[in-house]
Amino acid sequence: MKxxxxxISTIPMxxxxxxxxxxxxxxxxxxxxxxxxxxxxxxxxxxxxGIRTVAVPxxxxxxxxxxxxxxxxxxxxxHREKPWMVHSITPKAGLLGMLxxxxxxxxxxxxxxxxxxxxxxxGLKQKILIATDKLTCACATRVIPEGKGVKKDLEQHHITxxxxxxxxxxxxxxxxxEYFARTPEVEEKAQAYRKKDTxxxxxxxxxxxxxxxxxxxxxFQELHATDSSIRLLLVGPFEEQLDPVLxxxxxxxxxxxxxxxxxxxxxxxxxxxxxxVFVFPSYREGFPNVVIQAGAMGLPCIATDIxxxxxxxxxxxxxxxxxxxxxxxxxxxxKRFLDPSLRKTLSEQARPQIAHRFxxxxxxxxxxxxxxxxxx
Length: 376
Description:
Blueprint: E1 4-8, H1 12-18, H2 22-27, E2 31-36, H3 40-49, E3 52-55, H4 64-81, E4 85-89, H5 91-103, E5 108-113, H6 123-139, E6 142-145, H7 148-156, H8 184-190, E7 199-204, H9 213-224, E8 230-235, H10 247-255, E9 259-261, H11 269-273, E10 277-280, H12 289-296, E11 301-304, H13 309-312, E12 319-322, H14 327-336, H15 340-358, H16 360-375
Parallel strand pairs: 1-2, 1-4, 2-3, 4-5, 5-6, 7-8, 7-10, 8-9, 10-11, 11-12
């Protein structure tokens, strides 16, 4: 009889996007149940991964009353399911999932930190975030930082004294190199988004402040004022409620003649294949999948020197690293990358170094080895 493993995230999109294929792989060895807030993506996960799913409403923001209701529902669920392991990702699912699993005495309680919010906050909010992360770790039996940077932050801020295990070379699910490749089909579809005799800078992610969108748009406009043969391709949704960009930034995104905002897109490969340089000026990350994906598509990358990014981008090999929240450094890097010979050199080196460190099946093998070790 297979041991039961519950994988829990706050929203279904996390199970859908971050754990694609991994849940099906694990279901060959364990009885896997996916848990998240309700949504169409949850049904998609159930069908694609071949697992059972359960919807439990959870709020992403701090919401004491709703969080208590969610906790009670999770306690009832775990009491009914009696899993061998609860493995959580995302902050709120980690807090509620680990606490509920501890209350229900689930034998193995694992939380994966995909990134930490508190290092870029201050005051009371930072104290609350640190306290919740400490509680999550206290309730877990094992803690997994997604990368070395996250591990360092957990240790430096004394979030937990428990052993910290990084799976493989880091990252939550590795990269599917067969999917993220410049196949003839992808190249053909990408033609619709290419622009001749133009250097295209591309960003993929949420249009929010802490992704560095304000700096990116400002740096691009400054560069475009001296070189009109460039454009900026932005792929991702606005989030007005959580961390909105400046009004002038949004106005430029929607109205600047050389900025093309594509909104949310199911298949980002087409936009990566239609671009020349990937730009990712984020303030904070755990281990950003999109930087790995861009590298796998052979794009040289300009990224901020922060957790995750500095574990993926190799300076002078696959791209360059710049200080976070530094518009001038970003502008200078983008200007350097107008050099076709530099882009060609870095582009040829990007995919091989990603393949060597982050191939998906290698990471899955390491994850399964980690699970097996917990059975002993």
